[in-house]
Amino acid sequence: MDRHFLPTRAKQLVALASFPGAGNTWARHLIELATGFYTGSYYFDGSLYNKGFKGERDHWRSGRTICIKTHESGKKEIESFDSSVVMIRNPYKALMAEFNRKYGGHIGFASQAHWKGKEWPEFVKNYSPWWASHTLDWLNYGKVVHVVHFENVKRDLFSHLKGMVQFLGLKVSEERLLCVEGQKDGNFKRSGLRKLEYDPYTPEMRASINELVRKVDAALRKRNMPGVPDEYMPR
After folding, report:
1. Domain locations in the chain?
2. Tens digits of per-residue pLDDT, 36-61?
3. Domain 14-182+193-231 -> CATH class
4. Rg, the chain, Cα only
5. N or C: which end of the chain has fewer CB within 10 A?
6. Whole-angstrom Cα distance, residue 140 to residue 128?
7. Tens digit of pLDDT for each residue in 136-170?
8. Distance, CA of 122 to CA of 140 (rounded, Å)
9. Beta strand 14-18 with 83-88: parallel, antiparallel or unpaired?
10. H/E stretch holding 175
11. How many other β-carbons are positioned within 10 Å of the β-carbon of residue 215?
């Protein structure tokens, strides 16, 4: 399906914000297919540009892209956007995905030595609080926020993608949405999380992550938004 830059400069800067490992690149792929417009990025990743994300090379303020990928979460950065789509993913999955990316490259996987060594506990200690503070900051400082959960998009692509397109201020083309269903994975997606033979999370890690999940859930509900999907919540 064809994609273009916006014909006229966007009046609003819309962030596509997420914690690393939460499916931002996948969301960009879906949005580009559904709208026909390129997405931009706060960063420049040559490997994504080469995979067809042509908006990657534009300055993020160029106004030629429909929304802008960012992992930033500072007040100043958030306030430089007029509105935002915030993509949230189960922290247990997002942390593993980002750990794999960090130690194995965009479509690679961390080695057993990384999981079993000191890198993993260190990573969980540093990154899990950021998983929560990222969402909390966007909820606090974002001007207009549309929250999307990675798992819900996977479960019901059509309606959640339609919601994103409408939030971006575009008319929904049902025809395009149906086509997206057929090519929803793209060619850049890490082929699922490689199954580890064991659970890398210790009971202590789980206790602190569950606490963070409750915090995010409460913040969403306080804003009359649906809470986190059931599978994030400790049983």
Report:
1. 14-182+193-231
2. 999 999 998 888 898 889 999 999 99
3. alpha beta
4. 17
5. C
6. 19
7. 999 999 999 999 999 999 999 999 999 999 999 99
8. 28
9. parallel
10. helix 174-182
11. 15
